[in-house]
Specification:
heterodimer
């Protein structure tokens, strides 16, 4: 179905707003969950149950002074946080939120997603360089080395999914998981190694703990955003939360049936009136939100459970374990596809 | 009409990016100009409906190669680099003019010999940009040369690792 451009623009606007709101909800969730995990109440002063805390934080950040270091490159210094946010939000255009509900339904959307991941390294690298500070530069270099290393395994994990689906389009990858009984068509059951690889590399690419070396606050004075203040710092923060929310959506889309309801074929068999109805779209929207919300919780859960890797451990894990496993898994999946089809 | 406007905007920005890359003094700025140029070229591929090639352009050149370039530039001590020579406008203009003359003359020679390729139709260009056609020519038609290039690149990679090791093994 071709929509007029203004409808597409309106839907894109709604999705951007949704991502902005969900980022502040996630900030609240993270602080609340970490509070309970550490046996303390978490934010509970602003608004009911402290729910307005992230909004108060944003207001504070907006009113803070914007400080640019004297010898910094002012253009690149402002460009870096914008790049981070724009790229993080851009990925939202590719996710199919329900049947036929996707902004940009391209035939190569998986590759676009990988391309967006790989250019988001620029935000971190340029932020580290343009601040003209050794702490920022070290943070930026560490982070770009990490992101480059894990990109490769992530690409191979995605390729194994592409091999199974036989298509580079996210929509078709979701539709391909409809087969099988109930949940068994989901890629997590057909390609479990790829799923685990992708989830691990997604943690590394979004710079979340245990891979949060880029901003290891105990050793780096803060990392690539040391020299940022006010809303520019806030934009890095926003990009991090949008990134891991989008990453949850991608994990769900690639491996957990995307917008498909569990046992959708059974449900549609029982209620034939649902087929192609608006209710089904609403149910699917709800399903992908619940699934992605669960993975967003997993991101928070892991951060407050596992300690950070050492730099050497990070590189060893990336190059000596994940990459060979990803290559072997790719070969295995290719053989399986060739033999079974 | 819109496609033509898009083409000229993208082409102008691409050329501006290339020029900016040549004349900027700061290596990081040069790299940023080159990235802008690569994105515009990807946009030009998109106007030809070659989505796959456009995405690969961004993924490989902007996403992988230029990130490594930036990485290396940042690791270098920029202050220790020799001063960049001034850009000599006379040489630049002479270069552009003589290259233009050369291309015009070779076009005349080639067209009089009748060895010019036929212009592709837009449909053919669009068809050759999809992942399917590209894969067919790479893995079916030119499978052997493709594999040989792969082995060559592997050998080069191993050679680079060997050379960069401090102790001879």
């Amino acid at each position: 179905m071709e929509l007029a451009w203004y409808w597409t623009a309106l839907i894109a606007f709604v999705i951007v707003q949704f991502l902005l709101i969900s980022a502040s909800v996630l900030v609240y969730a993270e602080r609340k969950v970490s509070g309970y995990m550490q046996n303390r109440p978490g934010p509970n002063r602003v608004g009911p149950f402290g729910f307005l805390q992230p909004f108060a934080d944003v207001v504070k950040l907006v009113f803070k002074e914007n400080i640019v270091p004297v010898l910094a490159n002012p253009f690149v210094h402002s460009l870096a946080p914008m790049l981070m946010v724009v790229i993080a939000m851009g990925a939202g255009a590719l996710i199919p939120f329900a049947h036929n509900v996707v902004i940009a339904d391209m035939d190569v959307s998986v590759l676009v997603l990988l391309a967006l991941t790989s250019i988001s390294v620029y935000g971190v690298t340029l932020a580290g360089w343009s601040s003209n500070s050794k702490y920022s530069l070290l943070g930026g270099l560490r982070s770009s080395a990490q992101m480059i290393s894990y990109e490769l395994s992530m690409g191979l994990a995605v390729l194994s999914v592409v091999l199974i689906a036989g298509s580079l389009s996210l929509t078709e990858i979701v539709e391909d998981q409809a087969g099988g009984w109930g949940l068994l068509g989901w890629n997590i059951f057909r390609n479990p190694i790829g799923a685990i690889l992708f989830i691990v590399t997604a943690f590394a690419e979004t710079n979340r703990a245990p891979f949060d070396l880029p901003e290891a606050e105990q050793e780096l004075v803060g990392g690539y955003h040391t020299e940022y203040s006010g809303m520019k710092f806030g934009m890095f923060f926003l990009a991090e939360y949008v990134n891991f929310f989008i990453a949850s959506f991608v994990i769900v889309t690639l491996f957990f049936g995307g917008y498909m309801l569990p046992f959708e074929s059974v449900l549609l068999g029982a209620f034939p009136a649902l087929v192609d109805s608006l209710w089904l779209t609403v149910l699917q929207l709800g399903t992908i939100l619940v699934k992605a919300g669960f993975f967003a919780f997993v991101f928070i859960w892991v951060r407050w459970t596992l300690p950070r890797f050492k730099y050497t451990q990070l590189m060893t894990l990336g190059w000596k374990y994940l990459l060979p496993i990803a290559l072997a898994n790719m070969l295995l999946v290719a053989l399986g596809v060739a033999l079974l089809s | 009409m819109a496609a033509q406007i898009l083409f000229f905007v993208l082409a102008t920005v691409a050329i501006a990016g290339a020029l900016g890359m040549l004349v900027s003094r700061n290596p990081v700025n040069s790299a940023l100009w080159l990235i802008l140029n690569l994105f515009c070229v990807a946009g030009l591929y998109l106007t030809l409906n070659a989505t796959f090639i456009a995405v690969i352009q961004v993924l490989v050149y902007a996403g992988a190669i230029m990130v490594l370039f930036l990485f290396v530039i940042m690791l270098l001590n920029l202050a220790a680099l020799p001063d960049v020579r001034r850009f000599e406008w006379r040489k630049g203009v002479a270069y552009v003019l003589s290259m233009g003359l050369l291309s015009m003359l070779s076009f005349v020679v080639a067209s009089s010999l009748g060895v010019l390729p036929e212009p592709q139709s837009l449909q053919a260009a669009a068809d050759s940009g999809t992942a399917n056609t590209l894969a067919k020519s790479l893995f079916v038609e030119f499978a052997l040369p493709f594999e040989m290039i792969g082995i060559l690149l592997l050998a080069a990679t191993i050679g680079a690792v060997m050379l960069s090791k401090r102790k001879p093994v």
